[in-house]
């Protein structure tokens, strides 16, 4: 029972499904949205902020890392904080509030720098469509909500001689817990997710680990940021932890550059110390007015603009490969050849079917981890209900133009962990609101392709399990099948596996290359040891750090958001402790700050 193609008109109609989705009316999401998250009192449109103001910390990018970081820096022991986010607030976009809005948000992703859509579409130079967040909460406001910690080995580094932050594991764990108490829930698993759980176990992805946020070998249920009523909780909710009066959040504030000045030689202690320092940022509001935010003495600018945004801003600020910057007419502040280099994306490949029995909508809840050290592809699944009615309306007199028709698709996918294939990012224009160009060079390293081949075979084994039989449809006539029954097979949407998938590496490798997609876990560009040091300070500068997924050379665990949010909290506490130790105030214990 190899998964084989079943001709279906819906297969041909797939591009229309998404167009139909875009045309569909929004459901009453607002009714489910519940009470305001409590941080809204800190948020203002950038047009309402001053032309020039001073802060202890300026955080650029209100995403998975930026929100917990800003909230912590504006919490106990912290200072006056400005958080600048180029997008709007999540409450403005009802589809973000529920799991059901996930597909709709992606279908409406808009590449234009002038659009307000919370998901910004882009295509890498590899030709793989992708999205990036453009909203307060960042990826956590538009993502699939699956929450799982990094595997412990991730904190010890990747590869021989690779530089590693000196992670304080006690603080790592308490920072994870801080995030989890506010944002995570145990999902109720049924339908497609329950079937995939049973099928993974049948395919020997064992043991069964039940519900856990830890990264453990076998099959498990992870946490989710959607609560029991299906309402999304995002990193923006964490902003409520700031002390009133300390945190200022400006939305629709697109930072155009970091202001980097030479350090007065008299104040520079030693020739080995950086010769330049960040003193503030310039940002643009939606009316194209420019604002300046400046640092108070001892303050810091922290870039948390994500994997595309942070390297882009360093380049626009003159921190990057000198020749590239000069050719774009950008004055060089620091010749930093690795900015925008070492860009990675985890290839995703999978099989989608139209199941023969109705199933519910489900985002990722169950994950298969065939080996805990991150060497084998992870397996995840989702099911979507998508409307097709606009396409079918002309089909007959009994279909009313107002009665929607929905079809369910279910997917099982594998994601190559820590890919070795790497690419780069570069400025395609000096315009700060344009997405930079990026190439990930998927499968340029044979090791990644070999992992994909093994992962895709596991997907096929999961589909072959007895549990999955219920989702097969009858095909052909009874006389064609065995024992007088019609043959049952999967109605596959999109690419099908080669018939010889179990024996032919070349044909499966070809499937991997042809069907490569993203799981949106791209990372790199400001990698530790190359662009930032172990404390996430930009090398060659003072008062400037990068704290977000762009610093990773390997993405943590099965899915990164847990660790990116943990990192925001962790670095906030570290930075406050450092600032106090510089001032020699006795706050040696993080407990005081974690109150
Ligand atoms: P982001 O969260 O992207 O934050 C960067 C922020 O900076 C954005 O809000 C952006 O608008 C802002 N910004 C950028 N440039 C500027 C500028 N010049 N000025 C001002 N602001 C700027 N991970 C999981 O663990 N589980 C999942 O289920 C999951 N599903 C995903 C589904 C999708 C569709 C996507 C896109 C991602 C998903 N992820 C998931 C990945 C996860 O959301 C990201 O890894 C994480 O959000 C990265 O965090 P970050 O802080 O590095 O960047």
UniProtKB/TrEMBL annotation:
Swiss-Prot/TrEMBL cofactor(s): FAD
SUPFAM superfamilies hit by this protein: FAD-linked reductases, C-terminal domain, FAD/NAD(P)-binding domain
Domain Glucose-methanol-choline oxidoreductase N-terminal: 133-156, 306-320
Disulphide bridges, residue numbers: 452-512
UniProt: FAD binding residues: 135, 255, 520-521, 549, 560-561
Entries under Pfam families matching the protein: GMC_oxred_C, GMC_oxred_N
Family per similarity comment: Belongs to the GMC oxidoreductase family.
Protein's name in the database: Glucose-methanol-choline oxidoreductase N-terminal domain-containing protein
Species: Aegilops tauschii subsp. strangulata (Goatgrass)
